[in-house]
Amino acid sequence: MEKASLLVESSPNSCWACINRDGAVSLSSGLGYIGGMIRDNNGNFLSSFNKFVSKSNDLQVELWDVFEGISLAWNQGVDRLTVQLDNVNAYHLLNPPSPRW
């Protein structure tokens, strides 16, 4: 599976935090579950989240996961954040190509 990063530094410096997150969708019910944690540049735990989401697909779960992680980071006062994605479609939705004039 192709991996992509959003709001990326090559490695977080002293000002950056990172969201480590994952989500899943039940094949039988279509219900999704998301969760993750925020760590500082030294890998120290800052906060975590988890949540059931309604009927979803892989892309929706990925986007909910990013939203919840960024919301939590914002509420914790984190203003510089690295988010790693494993869904290239979510990456392209969150990073649209720049128009070429």
Automatic annotation (TrEMBL):
Residues 20-96 form the RNase H type-1 domain. CDD domains: RNase_H_like. Gene3D superfamilies: Ribonuclease H-like superfamily/Ribonuclease H. It holds the Pfam family RVT_3. This is RNase H type-1 domain-containing protein.
